[in-house]
Amino acid sequence: xxxxxSLFLSFLLFSPLFFASLFxxxxxSFSQDLDPQPMPFHVYKDxxxxxxxxxxxxxxxxxxxxxxxxxxxxxxxxxxxxxKFTYKATGSQGENWAGIYFLHPTDNWGMLDGxxxxxxxxxxxxxxxxxxxxxxxxxxxxxxxxxxxYTDSASASIFNxxxxxxxxxxxIDLQGQDLSRIIGGFCWSADKERNPNGMTFYLDDIRYE
Length: 209
Prior knowledge:
Blueprint: H1 2-14, H2 16-22, E1 41-44, E2 55-61, E3 66-72, E4 82-87, E5 97-103, E6 123-130, E7 136-143, E8 155-162, E9 168-173, E10 184-191, E11 199-208
Antiparallel strand pairs: 1-11, 2-5, 3-4, 4-11, 5-10, 6-9, 6-11, 7-8, 7-10
């Protein structure tokens, strides 16, 4: 009996499958690990607000063409500040487009266990305006992170938004979506074709509800 047990343990310990299993990634768990968040749930409420939950750290495309001010005091829609973005459209890295993802945690493209359970939300609301009223945003987006170990459970967008000089509310409908894990809380992108001379625009009060 002891010899049989010893042979079995030797087989197990020296089996290629045993060693391979030591390096296999753990299967990520999703909504069961995340409690549903109460609504409203802010991506950005105000500069340094404790209710800001996502970080604009996912810079994409010609990201050297982007300037960002998270504490802009130029006529915010609500509160003391708003976010100011300037896209220079110089094609600094040859992409001819640029954008930013608001991520949780910072710089998380799906390699870290992050995000929030936003299953109580039916929509994403935010306010935007352009400096001149000629600015065009290619896409505003919620969710969509899918390149790593952890992925967003949903993705929804609105496209080709022509901004005005006045603040305007925009809505991304999330009804029927699985929002059990959202790492990419908000995203915008713009391209050189629609904004050949660059542009400046503002965002405020980005929230799920």
